[in-house]
Structure formats: structure tokens, C-alpha cells
Amino acid sequence: MQIIGWILVFFGAFAGMEFMAWFTHKFVMHGFLWSLHKDHHRKDHDSWFERNDFFFLFYAAVSMVCVFLWHNQDWWYGLPIGLGIFAYGFTYFMVHDIFIHQRFKIFRNANNRYARALRRAHKIHHKHLGKHKGECFGMLVVPLKYFKD
């Protein structure tokens, strides 16, 4: 029975991260920490790394703290929450940095309906180079309006 609880908490943490990605992007990245995120919209450097990459460190730290609490404080929720955050972060990296922005040149030929909708939605967001008026959404749940062929 405990394994079912772990699985539910894992998927709950994973799904909750979609909300956190939207919230953080809209109110933090396009808000008070725009100074770290703006180089993601406007390439003003020659480096492969962006200041925007520092946001990864925050969620990695939260995931590690959860695993630490599971291991050292006997908090059973810590492991499935930490792994759910990690799994979302890995998925986000694969979708956003590799598939959409092609930071590594793989998944270039994916051309199914979901892939086209995801690219279209992200392109609309990046159309706005400034802090304001950029439509924000999660990374995995794409609004239906982008599923036109």
C-alpha cells in the first residue's frame, strides 16, 4: 500500500511542478528576477550558458533538500517529492532546452501535432522580447488554441 502512496505523491509533485513552472515564469522570471531571465529572450552574449540557467539551481536545491529530509529526517514524502521535482526538471530540460531551443542538436525531426503546437506556443511567447506582454504557460500542457494544423 505504501508504494501506491509514493507513486501518487511522485505524480502529484510532477504535476505540481507544471503549475510552479507557469507561476515562476510569469511572476518571478518576468517579474522581479527579469534580470536573470532576459538573456533567454534576447541573446546579448556569446556563451552557451545563460543567466537564465540559474533557475535550474533553485529547483535542483529544493529536490535535493526533499531527498535529504527523506534520508536524514525520516520524512517519507521527501523521496517521491524530490524525485517528482527531478523528473519534471529533466523533462523540462529535454523539452525546452533540447527540443525547442536546440541547445543540443537532437529531436530536430519531431513533427507530430503536439510537437508543432509546443513549438508554436513557445514561439508566440518569445515574440515579445521585453518583460511584459509575453504569454506564459506551462511547458507540458499546451493550450488547445495552438493545435491548429
Please bin the fraction of helical residues.
55-70%
Structural class: mainly alpha
Q: What's the story with the biggest beta sheet?
A: none
Count of the separate structural domains: 1
**Total beta strand runs:** 0
Low-confidence stretches: none
Radius of gyration: 17 Å
Sheet-strand content, in percent, reads under 5%
Shape, principal axes of CA atoms: globular
Contiguous helical run count: 5
Mean pLDDT: 82
Query: Element order, helices and strands?
Result: HHHHH
Q: Whole-Å distance between the termini?
A: 45 Å
Structure description:
This protein is an all-alpha fold and 149 residues long. It has one domain. 64% of the residues lie in helices and 0% in strands. The chain contains five helices and no strands. The protein has helices at residues 2-32, 34-41, 54-73, 78-100, 113-126. Helix 1 packs across helix 2, helix 1 (2-32) packs across helix 4 and helix 3 packs antiparallel against helix 4 (78-100). It is globular. The model has no long low-confidence stretch (mean pLDDT 82).
Topology:
Elements: H1 2-32, H2 34-41, H3 54-73, H4 78-100, H5 113-126
Helix pairs in contact: 1-2, 1-4, 3-4
Describe, in short, the structure shown.
The chain is an all-alpha fold. 64% of the residues lie in helices and 0% in strands.
